[in-house]
Amino acid sequence: MSSHGPAQKMTARAGGPLKGIAHVPGDKSISHRSLILGALAVGETRVSGLLEGQDVLDTAKAMAAFGAEVTRHGEGDWSIHGVGVGGFAEPEDVIDCGNSGTGVRLVMGAMATMPITATFTGDASLRSRPMGRVTDPLALFGARAVGRDGGKLPMTIVGAADPVPVDYVTPMASAQVKSAVLLAGLNAPGKTVVTERSATRDHTERMLRGFGAEVVTEQTGEGYRITLTGRPELKPQTIAVPRDPSSAAFPVCAALIVPGSDVLVPNIGLNPTRAGLFTTLREMGADLSYENEREEGGEPVADLRARFSPDMKGIEVPAERAPSMIDEYPILSVVASFAEGSTYMPGVHELRVKESDRIDAMAVGLRACGVEVDETEDSFTVHGLGAGGVPGGATAAARLDHRIAMSFLICGMAAKQPVSVDDAGPIATSFPIFEALMRELGATLLRPNA
Ligand SMILES: O=C(O)C1=C[C@@H](OP(=O)(O)O)[C@@H](O)[C@H](O)C1
Ligand SMILES: C=C(OP(=O)(O)O)C(=O)O
């Protein structure tokens, strides 16, 4: 059972403007996939710009436990000597995925069609999250799962010795479920098909193609139908991980709400399945521009420039945009608190099963900061108080959720009174340099217990 040690209280308070260049770390989704696909290729994959957040480090450890040779050569510079599709060894111990839903679900998929057994666990947050969403489709391949409390970690997966390919429609918009099915399909003979009603992040499909697998995506009346031809030989790759738009969201949003700010966030991956927040912010009237737009490694990339935007207005965020900004609703809710009028966010029930129930975590914390909000099972509404209008003066519970912790610290940078989080430790799962980077831009972050 993992945990990150004693709680690290942190406080943010308003100071001067935020200025400068913010180099955020590598993309978390692409980092996990680089390690997993590298482990399934034959030979050595080289990765630069790998996110060295705890979530990804736990996936690196998992790949070593399944028999890949994983080596760190320098900051963000890693190699994975893969064992080939079907080549995982049975791990000798429990696989601890820490706080990472992506890590555990993708690794479960990758091993589920091999004749091996593995037991997975994680921290208290991950042990509360549903795994049935991946074990249901993995059972169709012939894998068996035994978990606690109707489908939670700790959980043992007995991989299928004789897997069959699967044709599966994902019941919820989830790139993790889609990816688990595709990774399992790698070691099933014939064609595995996964259909999703709305497009979720497509890094697995893009990267599988890059590693030499045949993956075809078609748009049908039902949605997006992805067909993978099983048992390919994956060829090792050289991967430059783009910088994470979900991490870029924090300095960008901070600049929008802190008076006088002007921040450049270079080299951000703007895959359309990830960039929904930036579209939304522009619709709200944010002074946010894309500079130096280009393509890198098959992904659109740009430098983001964000300036203080005192005239942002609340909007309705289209429900169909949710998958492309699913991790960004907590920080959008903070920006919405500093806009004029209400921001209505429908179609967000998936937020209830993230590292925390993010609707409840934001609702409780924002109310404590003096912001009026409404929630339903599937929607969240923030009644904005305009630039400089949020009272603050509260401590929010981070609930083992990095995005909740970072969101309330950004809130404190622009609120009238300081805002604290009870534990900033979880930030290290996705954005270990958050504190240093925000300080470098001019933010005032205090550690009252240090
Ligand atoms: O596939 C991925 O890398 C991810 C998919 C999303 O989860 P869901 O698949 O549960 O929506 C997202 O919230 C998570 O941070 C990363
Ligand atoms: C939901 C997230 O991650 P995961 O599901 O991988 O824990 C996230 O990073 O916001």
From TrEMBL:
SUPFAM superfamilies: EPT/RTPC-like. The active site is at 327 (proton acceptor). GO terms for biological process: amino acid biosynthetic process; aromatic amino acid family biosynthetic process; chorismate biosynthetic process. Its EC number is 2.5.1.19. GO terms for molecular function: 3-phosphoshikimate 1-carboxyvinyltransferase activity. Its main location: cytoplasm. PANTHER family: AROM/DEHYDROQUINATE SYNTHASE (PTHR21090), PENTAFUNCTIONAL AROM POLYPEPTIDE (PTHR21090:SF5). Monomer. This is 3-phosphoshikimate 1-carboxyvinyltransferase. It comes from Tropicimonas sediminicola.
